[in-house]
Amino acid sequence: MITSEALAAGLARHGVDLTFSQCFPVRTQHVAPKYGIRQIGFRTENAGGAMADGYARVARRIAVLAAQSGPAATLLVPPLAEAFKASVPILAIIEESAKAEADRNAFQEFDHFALYASCSKWTRRVDRPDRLDDYLDMAIVHATAGRPGPVVLILPSDFMGEEAAISARRTTKLGHYPLDRLVPTPDRIREAAAALAAAQRPLIVAGGGVHSSDAAAEVVRLSELGAIPVATTNMGKGAIDERSPLSLGVFGNCMGHGSSAQHLRSFAAEADLVLLVGTRTNANGTANWTLFPPETRFIQVDIDSCEIGRNYEALRLAGDAKATLAALLATLSEKDFPNRAASYERVAKATAEAREQSITILDEIGPGRQGAVRPEHLMRTLDAILRPEDIVCADASYSTNWVSTFLHARMTGARFLEPRGLAGLGWGFPMAMGAKLARPSANVFALVGDGGFAHCWSELEAARRLNVKVVAIVLNNQILGYQKHGEEWFLHHHSDASDLGPVDHAAIARACDCFGERVSSPQEFAPALERALKDKRPGVIDVMTDDEARPPLNQYMFRPGQAAVGDL
Ligand SMILES: Cc1ncc(C[n+]2csc(CCOP(=O)(O)OP(=O)(O)O)c2C)c(N)n1
Ligand SMILES: [Mg+2]
Predict the structure, then answer these.
(1) Which residue's C-alpha comes closest to atom 13 of ligand 1?
(2) Top CATH class, 366-558
(3) CATH of the structural domain 186-352, one choice from 3.90.1300.10, 3.10.180.10, 3.40.50.1220, 3.30.70.1060
């Protein structure tokens, strides 16, 4: 057996049943179907990387992404950078020029080590056929162990034709994560449990690490045990059913006018102890580090011990979120929380009132008018048909904020995917394709701006060809909204580039033999959504939205000039 086939056999051993690839590594793809591995042939490597990302987030399995050397390899940088920052395990395989031609300016030869230095946890070139299995296992372990992330294996084209020696020693399946569920020492757990029980106004903040660890059930059990309110970050959205009386919604950069979180901010300001679970405490998740007063104490659970204490000094619980919370739960019981009933009542009353206030504001905003549909109306309509297991993927820009603020998780562990690693435009649609491949039973939606969708609308052809049924809702405001509004807000001026020309996205969809409809007035949206879902093909609903609509970002709560331009 040659190394190309040994690679397919090795991937199959790890449970890999699809790869995101446009033909590469060539001879591996030729034999992959024999090993039960389907090739997801994207149109661009950028988008293929975003598909891999969405797949890995939902499946909690490693995603395998492959590309040719040089120009194709360079297009993997943006998705790997997103995965690096968002802690998503992706194995990127680069088939590069022959080792016999190394450093001779071979066709498309490039320094891939330097290329991936900033966005890969681990990069190796393999050139000994007897070590292929060793390197494959090492690569997968580096991607899935500890804080998950992308890794790169570089395989020279002549190496791919060499005779391989398959290692009989290697039989383990490593393609899922978390790979190891590490826990802090018992004394740390006892110390944290005692602090939680003694706190007068504790708060849990659940980040994306809760989903990576499959720890949502444990978050909810702890919350219910102590009547502790739960706020999530954007990436942690869905850690708790957002209809629960103990759910505060998404805290961070979008707690302005219209959000229910706006009225619940005091739970952060007044908390005497905050349990941070799987969150980077980044700018978006902490409203630029303004949520908590200096005297707040923290306990921080994170698989990456270097994250603990980055922005807030904390009692350190370095470990897997699920296993660590389970250890805390094993130490605590209801009677450890003397104020439980009173706390529950206080939180439930506040969350019920905040939700009512948000609805009142949404009613005031209304559905919009002909040619200027309000995104809030679209969110309410979509929210009404979402089933608990359905998935919504948001593009960067306002789409992320509309999803975080106005859609509601309907189960513990519900998924809303947002490219919050780097917040790059274009990810929403291909990420949704990856999510659908990971969870075929779900209805999967992509909410995208017209600017962002243009980065990846070529993947409509791939979605149709590969029969990946997702529905894209395009917020067609004909502007780079966040950019233009931000410039106007802070600088009272905008540059020409943020006014876009008219584009008929429904026609683009139909040109790819997908479902495509234009919606111009609010009442057209619900029936169009119904038709899009009924149609067996992937679909696009191109909605002409109000170019004045802004999500409730914190920055719009300040008067212009008060916030820094850096907040853009
Ligand atoms: C790849 C990339 N390029 C540029 C940006 C900067 N940026 C952030 S939001 C935005 C405007 C996006 O417009 P659109 O997708 O139409 O969404 P809208 O805000 O109008 O809803 C831009 C250009 C980015 N985040 N990512
Ligand atoms: Mg736009």
Answers:
(1) 480
(2) alpha beta
(3) 3.40.50.1220
Say how many residues make up the chain. Answer: 568
Pocket flag, ligand 1, residue 438 (CB < 6 Å): no
> How many whole angstroms separate alpha carbon 34 and alpha carbon 207?
40
According to DSSP, the β-strands at 368-369 and 372-373 are antiparallel
C-alpha separations of 418 from 28, 302, 393, 394, 477 in Å: 32, 20, 6, 5, 20
Residues with CB under 5 A from ligand 2 (ion): 449-451, 477, 481
The model carries a pTM of 0.97
Q: Is the CB of 475 under 6 A from ligand 1?
A: yes
Which backbone phi and psi does 451 adopt, to 5 degrees? -65, -50
Distance 452 CA to ligand 1 centre (A): 6
Q: What are the DSSP calls for 455-472, one per residue?
A: TTTTHHHHHHHHT---EE
User: 168-207: per-residue pLDDT in tens?
Assistant: 789 999 999 999 999 999 999 999 999 999 999 999 999 9
Residues of the chain with pLDDT > 90: what percent?
Answer: 96
Ranges in the chain annotated CATH 3.40.50.970: 3-161, 366-558
> Within the chain, which residue ranges are assigned CATH 3.40.50.1220?
186-352
Query: Which residues on adjacent β-strands are paired with residue 249?
Result: 231
**C-beta separation of 375 from 402 below 8 A:** yes
Instruction: Say yes or no to pLDDT of 556 above 60.
Output: yes
Instruction: Decide whether any atom of ligand 1 lies within 6 Å of the 375 Cβ.
Output: no
Cα separation, 189 vs 4, whole angstroms: 47
Cα 481 to averaged position of ligand 2 atoms, centre (Å): 5
Residue nearest to atom 22 of ligand 1 (CA): 483
> Ligand 1 centre from 91 Cα, in Å?
28
Ligand 1 centroid to Cα of residue 77, in Å, is 18
Domain 3-161 homologous superfamily, CATH = Thiamin diphosphate (ThDP)-binding fold, Pyr/PP domains (3.40.50.970)
DSSP element (H, E) containing 54: helix 45-59
Task: Please give the distance, rounded to the nearest whole angstrom, from the Cα atom of residue 132 to the centre of ligand 1.
Answer: 41
Q: Which of 85, 401, 473, 483 to mutate to test the pocket of ligand 1 (most atoms within 8 A of CB)?
A: 483
Indicate if ligand 1 lies below 6 Å from the C-beta of 116.
no
